[in-house]
Automatic annotation (TrEMBL):
Keywords: ATP-binding, Nucleotide-binding. This is Sugar ABC transporter ATP-binding protein. It comes from Myceligenerans indicum. It holds the Pfam family ABC_tran. Residues 23-267 form the ABC transporter domain.
Length: 269
């Protein structure tokens, strides 16, 4: 079995050997007091791929994606988007650059309806002075667009976009958050445990959404503890252990058992 930090061509089905990663991180360090969250992590996301991140609890998966998406600022290291160094100070900076993220702790506004949640932070104003001066939002327009987005994405569990999100099930809330990321992520979509709270059918829909995004050319980073999901959806798998990248493998190069051994340290890369 082979494990490489620099992926071979075989590991990157959609990418040529000299392809620039869409997203690249080198030597990311993040500490919280005495706790080391990240201890010099490298990550590469290539065009057109689904990259899964796996690792035990506390391995640094969420911290890694927070640093990549502006929710945390790394103490050290560099992040490149399309080969250009970026310095995200806030999640809005990453969103403006085309990176949409669904964090493990969901950020939805429970009292707002589904359509408003989809457009949170990027509300569409009414045309003319009603919008530009009075800042009135175009509710009807947003609802119509929200319905279209959800249909395009094949999400069928959310029938009525005027329902407040607080009335939805946990899985449906998750679907709203994933739909928002999928609708607006123009360069990268990042999902931290998107299927953890979902039933079988909703999980299947999220995985299908990930495939749809990849097929549209948007690479996806997905964190999951669910090995069958990871092996079903991922082109490559970043194994995170003790704040570092322990290995990069593929569903063809390794079995699930071998992947778990790398995660826990029972096997070395
Ligand atoms: N805000 C914080 N303050 C203090 N320590 C933190 C903070 N965020 C993360 N950590 C610590 O950093 C390490 C990595 O945490 P992280 O949340 O990235 O793990 P994870 O791989 O996402 O785990 P899980 O699978 O449980 O979601 C852990 O030891 C954690 O306790
Ligand atoms: Mg986590």
């Amino acid at each position: 079995m082979t494990t490489t930090d620099t992926p071979s061509t075989e590991d990157r089905p959609a990418a040529a050997p000299d392809t620039t990663p869409v997203l690249r991180a080198r030597g990311l360090v993040k500490t919280y007091g005495h706790v080391v969250g990240l201890d010099g992590v490298d990550l590469d996301l290539f065009p057109g791929e689904v990259l899964a991140i796996i690792g035990d609890n506390g391995a640094g998966k969420s911290t890694l994606i927070k640093c990549l998406t502006g929710a945390e600022i790394p103490d050290q290291g560099e992040i490149l988007l399309d080969g250009e160094r970026v310095h995200f100070r806030r999640p809005q900076d990453a969103r403006a650059a085309g990176i949409e993220t669904v964090y493990q702790t969901l950020a939805v506004a429970p009292s707002l309806d589904i359509a408003s949640n989809l457009y949170l932070g990027r509300e569409v104003r009414r045309p003319g002075p009603l919008g530009s001066v009075l800042r009135l939002t175009d509710r009807a327009g947003m609802r119509e667009a929200a319905r279209r987005h959800l249909t395009d994405l094949g999400i069928s569990t959310l029938q009525d976009v005027t329902v407040p999100v607080e009335n939805l099930s946990g899985g449906q809330r998750q679907a709203v958050a994933v739909a928002r990321a999928a609708a607006f992520g123009s360069k990268v979509v990042v999902l931290d445990e998107p299927t953890a709270a979902l039933g079988v059918r909703e999980s299947g829909q999220v995985l299908q959404l990930v495939r749809t995004l990849r097929d549209k050319g948007v690479p996806v980073i997905i964190i999951s503890h669910n090995m069958p999901h990871v092996f079903e959806i991922a082109d490559r798998i970043h194994v995170q252990r003790l704040g570092r990248r322990a290995a990069t493998i593929t569903p063809r190069s390794h079995t699930m058992t071998e992947a778990v051994a790398l995660m826990t340290g029972a096997a070395e890369a």
